[in-house]
Amino acid sequence: MLDIEVIEDPAAAEASLDPIRTRILQELVDPGSATQLAAKVGLPRQKVNYHLKALERHGLVELVEERRKGNVTERVLQATAASYLISPVALASVAPDPHRFSDRFSAFWLLALAGRTVEEMGKLIAGAAVARQKLATFAIDGEITFRTAADRAAFAEELGVAVTQLVDKYHDGGSGTERSGRKHRLVVALHPALKPSKTQNSAKEQNND
């Protein structure tokens, strides 16, 4: 089972977005049969089987084993991943294209870059799995509080300079046969953090009591 699977097929994406099938995928992080799932999701076994066949047809669940119980063969299935992301490839005709515009202060360009990251990482993870190779990646995630908008702008400017200097230091600028290394994608992002919802604030208050 993958930690995260990126869905590229439009039909598979549509199947995964059905609320009942989403619940089934959630429950099938651990292997289960239609009978077991029926009790958990509160649906008849025949109805669960219908949804399982659709998910299996689109490669979102897979057979783990078959158990013989009297005259009945019980199929045990499991989700192919613990979590799923839908790639922009599934909406290829309307997917954002980072090459259409390039504005480092645009929230929409940041979204386009994020979409491209999902698309490319999905393909890279699938390729690495087939080749049975480890995928070399690196990421930093954190939060920073700025006193003023001027401080934020100054930080962004200094960060851009620092990243440019590192790129100039390590980038192999050779061409053709002179370039022996592998090209890597570099994306640096900065955006406001989401404010906690009322539900999250209530949960924090209860934990502090």
Give a written overview of the molecule.
- The protein is α+β, with helices and mostly antiparallel strands and 209 residues long.
- It has helices at residues 10-17, 19-27, 34-41, 45-57, 107-131, 149-170, 198-208, and strands at 2-7, 32-33, 61-69, 72-79, 81-86.
- The protein has two domains: 2-85, Orthogonal Bundle (Arc Repressor Mutant, subunit A); 87-172 and 183-199, no CATH class.
- The chain is 46% helix and 15% strand.
- Strand 3 (61-69) and strand 4 (72-79) form a beta hairpin.
- The longest helix is centred in the middle third of the chain and has 25 residues, at 107-131.
- It is extended.
Please summarize what this structure is.
The protein has 209 residues and is an alpha+beta fold. Helices cover 46% and strands 15% of the residues. Helix 3 crosses helix 4 (45-57).
Main pleated-sheet profile: 3 strands, antiparallel
Distance between the termini: 39 Å
Number of strands: 5
Q: Determine the structural class based on helices, strands and strand pairing.
A: alpha+beta
Unreliable segments of 5+ consecutive residues? none
Q: Secondary-structure element order, as H and E?
A: EHHEHHEEEHHH
Count of alpha/pi helices: 7
How many separate domains make up the residues? Answer: 2
Give the overall pLDDT as a whole number.
89
Gross geometry: extended
In angstroms, what is the radius of gyration? 23 Å
Helix content: 40-55%
Approximate strand percentage: 5-15%
How do the strands line up in the largest sheet?
2-4-3
